[in-house]
Write a structure and sequence with these properties.
The protein starts with 20 loop residues before the first helix and ends with a helix. A four-stranded antiparallel sheet has the order 1-8-3-6. A four-stranded antiparallel sheet has the order 2-7-4-5, with no helix packed on it. Helices cover 29% and strands 28% of the residues. With 140 residues, the protein is an alpha+beta fold. It is globular and about 40 Å long. The longest helix is centred in the last third of the chain and has 21 residues.
């Protein structure tokens, strides 16, 4: 698979949408690009989450309780909540095709937050916004 030509636009990811250009550059430096074969389990439902994934190439299936939920392709992402807590994964995500992904581990993410403490407030604010939106949909 060929290397990605343009830099990743992390602002399209809700968790990073309020970050400055400098903060996004720091995040990009912490990303690791990986390739996986079809059949690779990227996240397992109910297992602890420790990383975030952004799909560069390929397709992954998402299942909950063994039932299909979604198919994910390029520019889709999953696991962002694992960066904030080590809570259990809500679904299993499996590579259906050869895939190229960028991965941000919780340890690397925490190093960025330690280097730029103001980023924590921005992440809290966008998380609160996301929670309020979810609450409004659940209780209209």
């Amino acid at each position: 698979m060929a290397p990605r030509a343009e830099p990743l636009d992390l602002t399209t990811i809700w968790l990073f949408s309020a970050c400055s250009a400098k903060e996004l550059r720091l995040l990009r430096r912490s990303l690791e690009e990986v390739s996986v074969a079809p059949g690779t389990v990227l996240t397992a439902e109910r297992s602890p989450g420790r990383e975030f994934f952004l799909i560069v190439e390929g397709t992954a299936s998402v299942t909950r309780a063994g039932k299909p939920v979604a198919m994910l392709g390029p520019d889709r992402y999953f696991g962002e909540l694992a960066l904030l807590d080590r809570g259990s994964r809500s679904a299993t995500v499996r590579a259906e095709t050869p895939m190229r992904l960028v991965v941000l581990g919780q340890r690397e993410f925490n190093r960025v937050l330690d280097a730029v403490p103001t980023m924590t407030r921005k992440l809290l604010a966008v998380t609160a916004t996301r929670l309020r939106e979810s609450d409004a949909r659940a209780y209209p």
